[in-house]
């Protein structure tokens, strides 16, 4: 009996000594199918959760801007801010004033300029009303009223609900894609 014959006999007598060199194609396909099933379940839930988080952040930011306007009015006696930039301030501003109140963050105030900003998948559009006749000395004129319209950047992707607030402080929303107005449903 030669050495080759002895190896054949040993491997037949002891089947556990055979070595595997990897996974079979069937085993790999089964693992891939399981991963795809789990991903198919998880991805829609993840996207829905992200959209809900964006909406919650938009509602909170809407409340922040509304509260900042009340604080601005009480602090500076200049009615409501004339822009989002007035409620915020450019980067590096350390002293608050009636023209740069530092009441909202730089992203919401569009770095201290303009009336439109974007944050967490939503666009914030501040529409000032008519300016007041006599602003305090050194202050840009405040406004008698304002509206803030908040809409998703991409409807049904970054959010569904659109928000609206005015000097009443009541946040209103729609979920059908229409622009909210002061007659829309208040947020519960």
> Structural class of the helix and strand makeup?
alpha+beta
Question: Structurally, how many domains make up the residues?
Answer: 1
Rg is 31 Å
Low-confidence blocks of residues: none
The count of strands amounts to 6
Q: What gross morphology would you assign?
A: elongated
The CATH topology is what? Glycoprotein, Type 4 Pilin
Per CATH, the class reads Alpha Beta
Main sheet strand line-up? 1-2-3-4-5-6
Helix share, percent: 25-40%
Q: What is the helix/strand order?
A: HHHEEEEEE
The CATH architecture designation is: 2-Layer Sandwich
What's the story with the biggest beta sheet? 6 strands, antiparallel
- Distance between the first and last residues' Cα: 89 Å
Alpha plus pi helix count:
3
The proportion of residues in beta strands is 5-15%
Q: Report the average pLDDT across residues.
A: 86
Description of the structure:
The protein has a single domain (26-186), classed as 2-Layer Sandwich (Glycoprotein, Type 4 Pilin), CATH 3.30.700. 36% of the residues lie in helices and 14% in strands. The chain has helices at residues 3-13, 25-76, 84-87, and strands spanning 116-119, 122-128, 146-152, 162-165, 172-174, 185-186. The longest helix has 52 residues, at 25-76. The protein starts with a helix and ends with a strand.
